[in-house]
Model the fold of this input.
Amino acid sequence: MLARKIFFPVMIMLSMAAVSCSTKKELLAEPVKDLNATWHIQNVTRNTVDITPYIDAADFKLTLSPDNTYTLEGNNIPFLVNNAAGTWSSDDPQYPYNITFKPADSTSSFSGSIATPVSKGQRTLSITFNPGCHSNTYIYTFEKSN
Done:
């Protein structure tokens, strides 16, 4: 009899607890990758070989502006575009996989694949491309300039 008196109240409390607990799945939205910045070269590889020590990239700066214009400074190395200015776009603001540059004095555009990993708490930008010769693949890894 005592077991019955305890059993029913316990069952009622467990039922109420189960009904009152609702799990809500929180959806985390992927943030938009802000590529608007002045970028300087951190690392350059050609065909998976690090060639950073052999190139003069100290003055190389790529500025991607919010109005989708770009400027290049100090470009004396192979890059996706060689023109100093033009427009740029990415294929998706949250999940960008490609970036396209269109020089101001050209009707052609040039695309490369990109990655936007975070390194040491800062967003980086990697651009992979073939500058005309398909047997050479370059990966430029950029950091934001301060």
